[in-house]
Amino acid sequence: MTETIIIPLNKLDVDPKNVRKTYSAEGIKELAATIRADGYRLLQNLIVRKGDKKGRYFVTAGGRRRAALFLLAEAGEIAKDFPVECKQREAEDATAISLTENLHEAMHPADQFEAFKVLAGEGKSVADIAARFGTTETIVRRRLALARVSPVLLQLFRDEKLNFEQLTAFTVSDDHARQAEVWNALPSWNRDAHSIRRALTEEMVSATDKRVKFIGGLATYEAAGGSVKRDLFDKHNDGYATDAALLEKLVAEKLETTAADVRAEGWKWVECRASMPEGLHGMKRHYPETVPLSDEDQAALDAAQTEYDELAELIESGAADDEAEAKLAEVEKRIDALTGRPEAYSPDALEKAGAFVMLDYYGRLSIERGFVKADDIDEDENDESGIPASAKAVETKPAIPVMTHSAALIEDLTAHKTAALRIELANNPDVALVAVVHAMLLRVAYPYHSEQSALQLSITHERLEPSMKHAESCKGLAAFNDLSENYGHPLPDNPADLFDWLLEQPQDMVLSLLAFGAAHSVNAVEKKFTDRRKGIEQANQLGRALKVDMSEWFETTGESYFKHVNRTTIELVVAEAKGRDAELSVKAAAKKTEAVTIADRLVAGSNWLPAPVRIAADEAQAVEDQTDIEDDEQFPEAAE
């Protein structure tokens, strides 16, 4: 017997014979939204049977609809005794009816995509469709994008010859012919979503491209009339510029704006490039020179230095007044202003060399000056004697004392330098990525080259404590050990789980771990017998890229340095750090222990660093200086 009856909502109970016991809370919310959109009407009646108590009924089929109505009642949208149209069946049929309903297949996703497309074609907005089905506008847009995929590919999806992830990759193009072409062209073993998306966008330019970043993003490109194709299924990409020619034009215009200012400097030539020119680092290059002081500025510097020395002597002897320290600080500022001379390129450099205005690896503006093209290099820079001009130009210099460091001290100081490089690299994923790739390319792209990286990648990690005299006082080592302890917490306990764990992490986390791992391999330690000179030189490049300030990681004190060097070196250090008058205080010391104590006091707070622990400011200049030394040794007569 079947009859249609009206039953108050609060008289409907869950049927214990219903085979579906669990409902999705999200699904109930979506169904409630659909009922609301239909004017709180059910498109399909509930199937009920009489309950255990008089006037109550069990819902045999339609448990989700009942739950959705109760949700609306709890929200106050409908009455608790809301009238529900039901069909009554006998108890003996309850289980069979419930099983039959729950065995029905859900709508195929492709059918859902096309149903959304029909609604959109009828003029319904994305917001209306989302409200109608109790979902988000983003999901509706994604479904509509999938509905625009070629019918041929949708049929393959229905036939389970193409999976959902592959189908989403085709939404980056609306060209059905191109979609089919890509699917047929890709080999069966290489039809993953990434390969499909890459093939469809090979003539487009990603929002992450450095050229797009340089002009200010896709918004600038769109403002200039460029069209953008957005991938609704790729959270890491804001879209693709489809007009590469327009993008190149915008890049060129922005580079030319800067190039005009650079040309005004007087260079022989200025070229704009969207990337680094091939062979750039093999070109001859001029570097800026320090502008000499005028006679007036030199006189002012001499006067300021004399005033400084007089004030320092008064302060040292305890005869200065209360304002002496302030006066001394003011004089120091004047001296710094006079000695901090600007640099400029020589007229010869401007006449022969030029500049590149270009984009760096990250899409930032880069201006590289002083490069000389092959045609502008003098054919013969040597005279008939065969002596290079650089050797002839060396001025005769009186012999001066040289700071000397024992092999053990150099190993200790460079271990401190390595510790600082490690912690700085671990905190800079961008530079770490470049450093690791650089180290790898040196091995694979330049197999017969002598260059080495500061990173000992295999990966090799050497403990620094054995190379340090007082490892417990090393700031860099302490910071790196703390960082190691912190990174150890999120990693899985079982190393067999590490790979899968990494696959689940966001890119920022992986990059941070890359920096952390790469930092372990840094090695700038100079031991007595080392064959890593090139790698140690590259450590200075690494330090400059990281903008390492070694004074933050190492302090020159009696314990860390002065007690390990000879009297002459102590005197030279004090002279370099605090001036010749300060050096006299050290010379006056009767014993080395006194000299160490005096030097410790004088140099404290000056940020002076021993050469082995410094980050060389300009490696090109260091190479040039080394060449001059070698020329002096090879041609001693030219240096005399």
TrEMBL record:
Query: What domain of life does the UniProt record list for this protein's source?
Result: Bacteria
Question: Which ranges carry the ParB-like N-terminal domain?
Answer: 5-103
Q: Which GO terms describe its cellular component?
A: chromosome
Q: Which SUPFAM superfamilies does the entry mention?
A: KorB DNA-binding domain-like, ParB/Sulfiredoxin
Any Pfam family matching the protein: ParB_N
Segment forming the signal sequence: none
A GO biological process of this protein is:
chromosome segregation
Q: Which InterPro entries match?
A: Chromosome_partition/occlusion, ParB/Sulfiredoxin_sf, ParB_N
Record's protein name: ParB/RepB/Spo0J family partition protein
Q: Report the source organism.
A: Neorhizobium galegae
